[in-house]
Amino acid sequence: MIGRLNHVAIAVKDLARATALYRDTLGARVSPAQAVPEHGVTVVFIELPNTKIELLEPLGENSPIAKFLEKNADGGMHHICYEVDDIIVARDRLKAGGARVLGNGEPKIGAHGKPVLFLHPKDFNGTLVELEQI
Which of 40, 56, 112, 129 is the most buried (most CB within 10 A)? Predict the structure, then answer.
C-alpha cells in the first residue's frame, strides 16, 4: 500500500537559521519558505537525490508545531511521510485494520498541494505518519 518515502519532517524554532544550516553548511538545495496556514506551519523543503527533508516552523501560537516545540525545546523529527496512490483507499484499509486517522478523517491539502492524512503515532511505534496521495 505505501510507496516511496516522500519526506522526513523536522520541527525547528528558527526556519531561517535551519535553512541556512542545510544550504550553507551541508550544501543542500532548498526551496523558498512557504506558509501553510491550514496546517499552522511555514515550511522549507530540502531537496535530496532520493527524498526530501521538510523543515517546519510554527505559524502562530496555536500551531501544532509550537506545541511540539514546547515539549521538544531543541526541535526534532516531527513526522515521516509516505506516498500512496489513493488516499481514500489507504485510509479505509488502515481504519479497517485498527489504525487511527487524526482529525476528522478527511484528507486536507498539504504543502505540496496534494491530499494528506496523519495517522496516530501510538499506532506506528511512536512515530507520527503522514500519507500523501501522489
Answer: 56
